[in-house]
Structures are given as structure tokens and as C-alpha cells.
């Protein structure tokens, strides 16, 4: 075997075809390849942004705050949080949640929702110190009451009270221990007493199905948002070429912390928030021009005015995942040639969709699917609409004019929607006159 080192160009070629998480780990472990790694094109299949970090191809990179006690055992809730990589928010030196820096945005960040957070370290929304103390004490009292009822054999009464929402579901020893820990932290802050624990920043890496978890600990000498930004800069920052991502989404983020100058070339984009237009505006600075038109954009909500956004209207496919009636009502606003409706198509929904086809361009395609109804429901629905004679070999044909027809294809796990129990494909197509 030759001892000759691999050339720079060959290394870039090898890196280009490595799985994204393997490249990130190699970058972390081998400083000598870092220049080449940042120069080689990076491809990612699945990228989901989170407030605490990112998920890349089912591997989660998360920033947390870890609490380490000087002596003795930690409360079970703290032990559990530490095992999961720490709490995912800023804390003060006493361990109380601190929101004062939560909505601060810096250069490179993608601000999805402009929210206002009180300049306060309170962990209860809108709480004064007195109200917060009362909330914690009340929780301790309820936990003690529930545990006492359990010891006295009053489980049936306890279940009825919980069912009527007269008492909260909390009431385990762990809940009581957690509430007492919060009270202790609150009293330390009130009395300015140094608590018997310290906090550290932890970056955890968790692979698919929690098969492997790795922790890296750091001194808590920066804010939580700064730590998240350091994480994304380590993964995405300094790259010479746009990062090619097949599927991009974001889970419950208000601000995505990114390094300046980053560009993504994306194929498919999923927006779960109701604010489609503002989310697209926020993302535009980090999307490379080669992303457009998108191959697919998936929306869980859509206002009529947002349907006219060029990114939405020019996407090759538009996938809508909300109530079918609301979806059908939007059809006149949609210009996409391919529309995928993830809903339960009723007879009336299908009637409206087919009526709408008369106003569409030829070669328009719709795909409807649902796992909530049986395949027999689908065939009976089509039969109700068009009659048994319209059905032939899992297709239905409806003649619109001498030159145009609507054709429906319906199958179990079809090639055009292979992960669905069944689906309908509707094509609006030209036919030769008889």
C-alpha cells in the first residue's frame, strides 16, 4: 500500500460524495482536511431547522444548557434534562429561564416571526416575581395533595378530579422534586445566594433512533443564541459553494441562527407556519437563485394572497396539507401545474376539483391521497360521481369536450405516490377528435 498522501483535488472529490453527517464528523476530528471540506460541494437530503440547532438526515445537532451539582444527587428532572443534552433555552446563574435575549437577531439570522418578549428573566409568561413564586408554591401544594391521595388509596377520586380538569395531571414524586428545585432556584435569586451548581453549554449529536449520542461540553461564557449560532457556523459557515439540500423545513422556529453569507440551493421547501409570505421573504437572502423554480413547496396553511407569491405560484408542484374544504376553496388562486392535496377527498370535493379543471391549462395534474379512508371508499366515491360505466381498470374518464378529457388514475401505493396507502391522480389532457 502506498504511503503517498491523497492529493487536495482527490480529497475534494471524495468529500463531495460522502454522506453529510460523516463529513461533519470528519471535519470535527481532522483539522487537516477542513479547508478542502469547506471547498467541496455539500449535499444534504433532509434539513430541518430548530430553535436549538438543526437536524440533518435524521441526525440532530442540538445546543443545551447542562446543570452540574457540586455535591449530592440532582433532582430527577435535571438528570433527565442532562441526559437529553440540557434545557434548550437561556438560563441565569440560578438556573431560571431567561428570555431577555431570546428574540435578539444578528447578521445572517432568518427572522421568521417577529415576536416581542418582555425584558425579564421570568419563566412564567407575564409573571411578576410575586406571581411566579405563587405559581411555584401552588404547584408544590398540588403535587403534595395528589401524592397524599395516592397514599390514602383515593385513586378513583383522583382520576375523576383530573378528568374534570379540577387538578393538573402532574403529581409524581419527580414533579414535586422539580417544583421544589424551581423554588430553591427562585429563593437563591431573590436572596442573591450562589446556588450549589454550575451550568455548561453542551452540544449533543444524536443519530437516528437515538442509536448514538455524543456530547461536547463548553464553559457557559456566551448566550444560548450565540452558542446556537456557533453550531450552525461550524456546520455551514465558510463554504465556497451553495449547499445543495433536497428537502428543507423548520420546526417551531421563530429565528434561525445562521452565519452571514450562507447560501442554500434547495429542491423542496416545507413551511409549517401560517405566515407563508413573511416566511418566504425571510428566507430569500439565504436561498441561491438556482433554487428556483422549486421542485415542490409543501404548505400546512395558505392565505389566498400568499398563493400569488412567485415562489409559490412558480413551483413545479404545490402540496397542500390542510382541511380539504379550505384547500378546494383556494383552487381558483393556484397557478401550479401540479397540485398535491393531502386530504380526505369527498364526493363534493371531487366535484369542485373537476369543475375547476375546466379553467385550468392543459397538462395540469392533481394528486389526492389519504390514509384515513379505505381503498373501497375511494372506488365507491368515484362510482357515485361518474357511474359504474366510467370505471375501467382503475381509471375513470370524464369527457369535457370533443377535444379535452379528465382522466383519473387510482391505485394502492401507486408509483406517483409510493408511500401512500392509496391515491388519485387527475390529468387534464387533450384528445384527438373522433
UniProtKB/TrEMBL annotation:
Do you know which Pfam families this protein is assigned to? DUF3557 (PF12078)
The superkingdom listed in its UniProt entry is Eukaryota
Q: What's the name of the protein?
A: Uncharacterized protein
Species this chain originates from: Caenorhabditis brenneri (Nematode worm)
Amino acid at each position: 500500500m502506498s504511503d503517498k498522501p491523497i492529493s487536495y483535488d482527490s480529497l475534494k472529490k471524495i468529500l463531495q460524495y460522502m454522506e453529510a453527517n460523516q463529513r461533519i464528523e470528519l471535519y470535527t476530528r481532522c483539522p487537516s482536511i477542513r479547508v478542502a471540506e469547506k471547498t467541496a460541494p455539500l449535499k444534504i437530503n433532509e434539513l430541518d431547522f430548530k430553535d436549538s440547532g438543526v437536524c440533518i438526515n435524521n441526525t440532530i445537532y442540538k445546543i443545551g444548557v447542562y446543570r452540574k451539582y457540586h455535591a449530592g444527587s440532582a433532582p430527577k428532572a435535571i438528570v433527565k434534562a442532562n441526559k437529553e443534552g440540557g434545557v434548550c433555552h437561556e438560563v441565569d446563574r440560578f438556573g431560571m429561564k431567561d428570555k431577555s435575549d431570546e428574540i435578539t437577531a444578528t447578521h445572517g439570522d432568518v427572522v421568521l416571526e417577529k415576536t416581542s418578549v418582555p425584558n425579564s428573566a421570568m419563566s412564567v409568561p407575564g409573571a411578576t416575581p410575586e406571581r411566579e413564586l405563587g405559581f411555584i408554591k401552588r404547584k408544590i401544594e398540588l403535587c403534595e395533595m395528589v401524592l397524599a391521595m395516592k397514599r390514602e388509596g383515593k385513586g378513583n377520586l383522583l382520576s375523576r378530579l383530573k378528568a374534570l380538569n379540577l387538578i393538573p395531571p402532574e403529581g409524581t414524586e419527580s414533579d414535586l422534586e422539580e417544583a421544589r428545585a424551581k423554588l430553591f432556584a427562585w429563593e437563591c435569586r431573590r436572596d442573591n445566594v450562589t446556588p450549589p451548581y454550575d451550568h455548561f453549554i453542551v452540544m449533543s449529536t444524536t443519530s437516528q433512533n437515538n442509536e448514538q449520542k455524543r456530547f461536547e461540553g463548553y464553559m457557559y461564557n456566551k448566550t444560548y443564541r450565540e452558542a446556537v449560532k456557533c453550531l450552525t457556523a461550524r456546520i455551514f459557515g465558510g463554504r465556497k459553494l451553495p449547499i445543495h439540500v433536497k428537502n428543507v423545513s423548520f420546526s417551531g422556529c421563530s429565528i434561525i441562527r445562521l452565519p452571514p453569507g450562507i447560501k442554500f440551493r434547495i429542491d423542496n421547501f416545507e413551511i409549517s407556519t401560517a405566515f407563508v409570505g413573511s416566511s418566504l421573504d425571510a428566507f430569500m437572502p439565504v436561498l441561491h437563485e438556482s433554487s428556483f423554480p422549486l421542485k415542490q413547496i409543501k404548505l400546512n396553511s395558505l392565505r389566498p394572497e400568499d398563493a400569488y407569491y412567485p415562489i409559490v405560484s412558480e413551483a413545479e408542484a404545490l402540496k397542500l396539507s390542510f382541511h380539504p374544504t379550505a384547500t378546494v376553496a383556494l383552487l381558483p388562486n393556484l397557478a401550479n401545474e401540479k397540485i398535491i392535496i393531502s386530504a380526505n377527498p369527498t364526493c363534493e370535493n371531487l366535484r369542485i376539483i373537476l369543475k375547476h379543471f375546466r379553467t385550468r391549462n392543459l397538462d395540469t395534474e392533481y394528486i389526492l391521497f389519504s390514509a384515513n379512508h379505505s381503498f373501497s371508499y375511494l372506488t365507491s366515491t368515484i362510482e357515485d360521481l361518474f357511474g359504474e360505466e366510467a370505471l375501467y381498470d382503475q381509471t375513470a374518464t370524464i369527457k369535457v369536450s370533443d377535444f379535452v378529457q379528465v382522466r383519473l388514475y387510482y391505485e394502492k401505493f401507486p408509483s406517483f405516490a409510493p408511500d401512500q396507502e392509496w391515491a388519485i391522480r387527475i390529468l387534464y389532457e387533450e384528445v384527438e377528435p373522433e
